[in-house]
């Protein structure tokens, strides 16, 4: 456009600014502002809003504040959107006192209207709730009331989420009731907060009831609603019910992300229901969702736990042929299975394969090999392996020490047990 002597307008520049900030190329975004100041068109509040938000997203609030100051010297009057961006950025960085001072300045100026001030106050209140500072959060809640503003659903959601985070369940229900009394109907975020809180407390029946109420009220559950509820049901052991909600998602044309499928597969795996676990995996593929490494690791863990080593190797072969490739967790599962069967040579071959695949064995790998040496009565090999672990610089936990120490106690070799104990004490120094 410039080569053809056509000067791009402000809208074109703002689109480009937005693209640069979204891609994280803030250096070129700043260059664009400099070009606009030099050649035109002159940047507007919207231009600076985008750049400031880009810096805040990348946790560089100081740079955003510098831009805020620069605007005044250029004769650009900041608007409430920029104030909200800065307050939100300061809160996320934990600088709540700075955010409070900025908000107080906004409230003193009071040229942006009560509703805009409530948005900024809500952002700050959310920051206080998330840091557990209930006193300050409630103080800003009182400030909102004193403004005489009718609270919207966003403000109520912040309050309800804040009380959930801090365990004040009576106040959660109080403000949900207040929402209905004020004619402010809960939205999908409100219901998601409540369902998440109930699932966290293990009250899955109540969570399912809220889900039904939500549907009757005409609020369509989203993928987060289903994810939270399915995860909660699987944790509580009601995998069939979780699977029923998965079916609801599919009926409503919501294709679950791999995490949701994996949670249900894992749930059936924990109940040793391999047939249903494989059925869900096949259903996942049929709906165009490719199994990831977590899916395969869950399946491999399940079949190994049920003693089906051949099926586990078939799954590993499937990973090698069509992806995703096995990772260290996959190999550790097979190493553990081989060690539990006393097949030390197979375990060592797997370790070599791990290295060929570009993975370094970790403390879990070595601990399993250590146990296997003991099972076969090969104390010398176990001691050599322990020294290798010690000298490798790997972060070592208590398990290898306990494995070796128990063996020394059984052999009544208290001197070696004591020396090992001294090594254990030194590991943290």
From TrEMBL:
GO cellular component, one term: chloroplast
NCBIfam families in alphabetical order: PPR (TIGR00756)
UniProt keyword Repeat, yes or no: yes
Signal sequence bounds: none
GO BP term, pick one: chloroplast-nucleus signaling pathway
Name of the featured protein: Pentatricopeptide repeat-containing At5g24830
Species annotation: Olea europaea subsp. europaea
Similarity-based family: Belongs to the PPR family. P subfamily.
Spans of repeat PPR: 9-43, 44-78, 79-113, 117-151, 152-186, 187-221, 222-256, 257-291, 292-326, 327-361, 362-396
Pfam families: PPR (PF01535), PPR_2 (PF13041)
């Amino acid at each position: 456009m410039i080569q053809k002597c056509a000067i791009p307008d402000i809208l074109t520049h703002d689109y480009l600014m937005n693209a640069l900030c979204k891609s994280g190329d803030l250096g070129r975004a700043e260059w664009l502002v400099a070009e606009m100041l030099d050649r035109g068109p002159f940047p507007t509040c919207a231009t600076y809003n985008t750049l400031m938000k880009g810096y805040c997203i990348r946790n560089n609030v100081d740079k955003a504040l510098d831009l805020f100051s620069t605007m005044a010297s250029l004769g650009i009057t900041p608007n409430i959107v920029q104030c909200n961006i800065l307050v939100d950025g300061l809160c996320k960085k934990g600088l709540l006192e700075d955010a409070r001072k900025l908000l107080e300045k906004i409230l003193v100026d009071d040229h942006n209207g009560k509703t805009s001030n409530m948005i900024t106050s809500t952002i700050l209140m959310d920051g206080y709730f998330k840091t557990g500072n209930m006193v300050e959060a409630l103080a800003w809640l009182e400030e909102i009331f004193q403004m005489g503003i009718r609270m919207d659903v966003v403000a109520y959601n912040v309050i309800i989420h804040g009380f959930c985070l801090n365990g004040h369940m009576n106040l959660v229900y109080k403000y949900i009731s207040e929402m209905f009394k004020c004619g402010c109907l809960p939205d999908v975020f409100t219901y998601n907060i409540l369902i998440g809180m109930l699932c966290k407390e293990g009250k899955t029946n109540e969570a399912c009831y809220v889900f039904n109420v939500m549907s009757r009220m005409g609020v369509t559950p989203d993928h987060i609603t289903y994810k939270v509820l399915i995860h909660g049901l699987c944790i509580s052991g009601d995998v069939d019910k979780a699977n029923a909600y998965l079916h609801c998602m599919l009926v409503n044309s919501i294709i679950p992300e791999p995490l949701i499928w994996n949670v249900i597969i894992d749930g059936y795996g924990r109940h040793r229901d391999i047939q249903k676990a494989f059925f869900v995996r096949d259903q996942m593929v049929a709906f165009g969702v490719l199994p990831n490494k977590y899916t395969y690791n869950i399946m491999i863990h399940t079949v190994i736990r049920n003693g089906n080593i051949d099926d586990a190797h078939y799954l590993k072969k499937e990973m090698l042929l069509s992806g995703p490739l096995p990772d260290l967790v996959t190999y550790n599962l097979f190493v553990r299975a081989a060690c539990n069967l006393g097949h030390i040579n197979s375990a060592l071959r797997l370790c070599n394969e791990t290295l060929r695949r570009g993975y370094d064995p970790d403390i879990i790998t070595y601990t399993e090999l250590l146990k296997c040496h003991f099972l076969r009565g090969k104390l010398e090999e176990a001691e050599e392996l322990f020294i290798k672990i010690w000298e490798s610089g790997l972060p070592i936990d208590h398990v290898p020490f306990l494995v070796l120490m128990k063996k020394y106690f059984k052999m009544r070799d208290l001197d070696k047990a004591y020396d090992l104990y001294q090594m254990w004490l030194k590991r943290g120094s």
